[in-house]
Each structure stands twice: as structure tokens, then as C-alpha cells.
Design a protein that fits this description.
Blueprint (H helix, E strand, L loop, with lengths): L2 H17 L4 H9 L3 H14 L6 H16 L1 H10 L11 H17 L4 H15 L4 H16 L1
Helix pairs in contact: 1-4, 1-6, 4-6, 5-6, 6-7, 6-8, 7-8
Length: 150
């Protein structure tokens, strides 16, 4: 497994836990308080609790993805909502929602990798953490967004 795959999976796991109701206060604090040191402390605690080892490059990727996703959260939600067919964002599973949040951030804002790579990685995360239908659902939404972005 390459460094970016490990980093993307860690981003997914970290952001998934932020999506849980018990962490709404923390997510709100991270959203309004862009002090990177507070964020790094929380991120390092989570990394230790999951026994995740990342390269320096992986750590930088994770920090950028998480902070940018939180910063662009409302706009990302709007983009996702616009590409859901006969579905509301509130009805998405937490797994699919989290995967889409991070992937759309990378597709539309941070642009760390080519669109095909981002979509493929999101599909792999959906296969690993989601339901049987998650990968095709995520693929459809991201493909629709990518076609509009290109």
C-alpha cells in the first residue's frame, strides 16, 4: 500500500470520527479556530490511538486535507448536494458522506492528485469501509462532479 493510500485512509478514519455527534463540538472548534497546533495535538492523539505511522509527506498530506476539508465544509456540502440524484445529503451514510467530503475537497480545492486517482482512491475506501453499494454510489457522484470540474 502506498503512502498516499495510507494517508487517505487515515484522513477518512479521522474525519469519520469528527462526523459522529459526540465530536460536533470539536469539529466546530476546529472549523472556527485555525490554530494548527491545537489541531496537530488532536490529530496526534488520534494517530496514537489507531497506531498509525505516516511518513513526513503523509503527515503533511493529512494536515492539509483535514484542515482544507473543514475550512471548505459548507461549500463542499453544496457541491455534493448538487450532484445527488433523488437523494438528500442528510440521508447519506456517515461512511459515504465522509468519503465524499474528503474526495470532493481534493477534487475541487486542494487538487493534490489527478481526478482519476482521487476517484479511484475514494472507490477503494468505499469498498473497504462502506456497504456493497458504496463504491458505485461514490463513483457516480464523484464522476458527475469531475465532469463538471473539467
Amino acid at each position: 500500500m502506498n503512502n498516499y493510500r495510507i494517508a487517505r485512509e487515515f484522513c477518512f478514519q479521522y474525519f469519520f470520527h469528527l462526523q459522529l455527534p459526540v465530536f460536533e463540538v470539536l469539529k466546530g472548534e476546529l472549523k472556527k479556530d485555525h490554530k494548527i497546533e491545537n489541531f496537530r495535538h488532536n490529530l496526534n492523539d488520534f494517530k496514537a490511538s489507531t497506531n498509525t505511522l505516516l511518513s513526513d509527506e503523509g503527515n503533511l498530506y493529512v494536515e492539509k486535507q483535514i484542515t482544507e476539508t473543514i475550512k471548505n465544509y459548507d461549500e463542499i456540502e453544496t457541491i455534493i448536494s448538487a450532484h445527488l440524484k433523488n437523494w438528500k445529503i442528510s440521508r447519506l451514510s456517515k461512511v459515504d458522506h465522509t468519503n465524499l467530503l474528503l474526495s470532493v475537497n481534493e477534487l475541487c480545492f486542494t487538487k493534490n492528485a489527478p481526478m482519476k486517482v482521487v476517484i479511484n482512491e475514494a472507490i477503494e475506501i468505499a469498498k473497504k469501509f462502506g456497504t456493497q453499494d458504496s463504491s458505485s454510489f461514490v463513483n457516480g457522484v464523484l464522476d458527475s462532479i469531475a465532469n463538471k470540474e473539467s
